[in-house]
Amino acid sequence: MSRIGIIGGTGLYKLGLESSSEVEIDTPFGLPSDTITLGELAGNQVAFLPRHGKDHSILPHEINYRANIYALKTLGVDHLISTCTAGSLKEELHPGHVVIPDQLIDWTRARQSTFFGNGIGAYVDLSEPYCPVQSLTIFKIIHEMGIEVHTGGTYICIEGPQFSTRAESELFADMGSDIIGMTAMPEAKLAREAEMCYTTIAGISDYSVCGMTSSRKDTMQNMHMMIRNLNEILTQIIRRYPSHTDYECSCTSALKGTIITSRSGIPFDTLDRLEAIIGKYRLEEGGSSPHGTILK
Ligand SMILES: [Zn+2]
């Protein structure tokens, strides 16, 4: 069954879904951040997972990104939408606005960032880390809601769990970054490895560069407004998510031709561990092994 996956960021710990139920999923990579809510809205099947846990007890560097993506993949998620709050590095990206980034800089240092390894190598193309088709669709829906939304922009993901120094923020802005946050990577990369269309909806909470200031009170007000907006935005996106678009993307075949390890060299337990990710590339017939013989 095809589902829209939602990963809720700061402040977004539940979603108003019809006929919902909670499922607890274990994965070969450990437990996801929390139970996953399955439900429906306007006929669309949805799986919702709060990235930091329902009580926000998991910090960005503690999140088990692999378990989160793997669990959603096993539930049939092929379209993944995440929300986050982010700092602005550009004057025109005001607190309270929404940004749909199209590029990423990975400034994290100590995260498990791939499903591969342990005897199997694959190198996915991450030149466009966000699905351009899905992101455009979502931009249009938010724009039609009358919300200030920017399409495109570079998200720099830092390790955290603290905000950047002034020198770092100035450096990141000089590098061409537009917004700054702590959770887009490795989430985007893992979503690509799992062949999901992936889009981030970033709500700007404050300015991160000196000279563009917002008070603590303004920041908190913006945060609360953003969280209200993100809830409504997600509801509208799910209600209006098209069953078909005129443009095609390559996200759902991102692994095709990228697995370079010769079949005989891949341990069986690695293949089994990655069943939800690479299962469709394993041939059922042929050879003496119940694990299939080759990868397409
Ligand atoms: Zn896509």
Short description:
This protein is of the alpha/beta class and 296 residues long. It is built from seven helices and eleven strands.
Architecture overview:
The protein has one domain: Nucleoside phosphorylase domain (Rossmann fold, 3-Layer(aba) Sandwich), CATH 3.40.50.1580. 26% of the residues lie in helices and 23% in strands. The protein is built from 7 helices and 11 strands. It has helices at residues 65-74, 132-144, 166-174, 184-193, 216-240, 268-273, 275-278, and strands at 3-8, 18-23, 36-41, 44-50, 77-88, 98-100, 103-107, 149-151, 154-158, 179-181, 197-207. Strands 1, 2, 3, 4, 5, 6, 7, 8, 9, 10 and 11 form an 11-stranded mixed beta sheet that branches. The two termini are 24 Å apart. Residues 284-293 have low confidence and may be disordered.
Topology at a glance:
Elements: E1 3-8, E2 18-23, E3 36-41, E4 44-50, H1 65-74, E5 77-88, E6 98-100, E7 103-107, H2 132-144, E8 149-151, E9 154-158, H3 166-174, E10 179-181, H4 184-193, E11 197-207, H5 216-240, H6 268-273, H7 275-278
Parallel strand pairs: 1-4, 1-5, 5-11, 6-8, 7-9, 9-10
Antiparallel strand pairs: 2-3, 3-4, 5-10, 6-11
The structure holds zinc ion (ZN).
Residues 131, 133-134, 197, 249, 251 line the site of zinc ion.
